[in-house]
Specification:
With 288 residues, the chain is α/β, with parallel strands linked by helices. The protein contains ten helices and seven strands.
Length: 288
């Protein structure tokens, strides 16, 4: 892909999204950075991005009307979108049973339905142009499981399944799908973890109910202080030739999740072939 790409990045008020928007803009792309509350609590990051020539767009991935308005604004301004980075997300962590179904639904609304909703907004244009890239920012807990992360982990496993299915369906249209799986990084998500909302159910676990605090503390203590690595990995995927991007990229490289991906890939290929999807396999690059 050339450097004159039109790129949309969701969840850009902080963290991976903010870093990715800046890095891609510096590479010469026309970047639309979406976030909630552009005129309010996120006014400062919106102004900072605007100073770099990035257009901040009000967009809440959990609200269809908001996505429709944001999509219209972007397409009216640019006419097309070449790259979509689905980054917006939240983290619900703690004793799984102590989350109410309503809280679980909110996690899925942001981390799964949200990326699906935004992707549906831009995929028709990509398919019509027979080119494009959709990146889903997942997590290594989209491949592994820790106690007290059940709600968050479920959302990332769901996102991985959604993204992989789309990768098979969109490849014949010239549209690539890539999944980025970051490990623990020191971003604002660690300061905004949503805990269990059923206090009585949590209390019934006694001391075991404190496992969520132990897990989140452990994640924070292991967090890398260089979250820009994730933005760099995304930028490398954008710059890679169409049709040659790996489906999954673990950040940082060398994490044990890479072993899981390498082990599962040939099994998945065998299953696809057994269901008669050998033609799809011809269009999917092997993991590097």
């Amino acid at each position: 892909m050339s450097t004159s790409l039109v790129t949309v990045v969701t969840g850009t008020s902080t963290g991976f999204g903010y870093d990715t928007a800046r890095l891609l803009a510096a590479a010469g792309q026309r970047v639309f950075a979406t976030m909630r509350d552009v005129a309010g609590r996120n006014a400062e990051p919106a102004r900072n991005l605007a100073s770099l020539g990035i257009t901040a767009v009000e967009l809440d991935v959990t609200d269809q009307n908001s996505v429709d308005r944001g999509t219209a604004q972007i397409l009216d301004a640019a006419g097309r979108v070449d790259v979509l980075i689905n980054n917006a997300g939240t983290a619900h962590m703690g004793t799984t049973e102590a989350f109410t179904p309503a809280s679980f639904e909110r996690q899925l609304a942001t981390n799964v339905i949200g990326p699906f909703r935004v992707s549906r907004a831009f995929l028709p244009g990509m398919r019509a142009h027979r080119s494009g890239l959709v990146v889903f920012v997942s997590s290594i807990v989209g491949r592994v499981v820790l106690p007290a992360t059940g709600v968050y982990t479920a959302s990332k496993w769901a996102l991985e399944g959604l993204a992989e299915a789309l990768s098979y369906e969109l490849r014949p249209f010239g549209v690539d799908v890539a999944i980025v799986e970051p490990g623990a990084y020191a971003t604002n998500i660690l300061n905004a973890i949503v805990g269990p909302d059923d206090a009585a159910r949590l209390e019934s676990y006694g001391e075991l109910g404190r496992s969520g605090e132990a897990v989140t503390s452990g994640i924070a203590s292991r967090a890398s202080q260089r979250p820009a690595e994730v933005a760099e990995a995304i930028a490398a995927l954008v710059a890679a030739p169409s049709g040659q991007r790996p489906l999954r990229t673990v950040v940082p490289a060398g994490h044990p999740a890479e072993t899981i991906n390498a082990t599962v890939e040939p099994i998945q290929r065998t299953i696809l072939e057994s269901f008669g999807f050998g033609d799809v396999l011809q269009q999917i690059p092997s993991a590097v």
